[in-house]
Amino acid sequence: MVKFKNNFKNEIIKKQLNPNLPSFKSGDEIEVSYKIVENKKFRIQKFKGTVLKVQNSNLAKRVTIRKIFNNIAVEKSFLINSPLITNIAVLTKGKVRRARLYYLRNLFGKNAKIKPLVKK
Where are the chain's structural domains? Predict the structure, then answer.
């Protein structure tokens, strides 16, 4: 967490941070549940895919997730500390050596799969 000279800023940031976030990194397969507002109603939709990158820290933390649906790749970015995010679940941990997995954009099918991390 960034230390500010003013305690007032720290208090505001602590209130806006989402306290129940699991730890994940690029290569992991996660499922994000988020609210979609339509008129005055809202519904919860889930987006399940592979984490391509995690950006920033603290309040502006952003994650980009990629999934393939009907042979079409869909990428979506989420602000993790947004009040519209209801839940994040880590499904599998992936074994990767890079922080940004942009090379997955050129791969489809079995080639785009990431090996799961096996602990010994």
Answer: 7-112
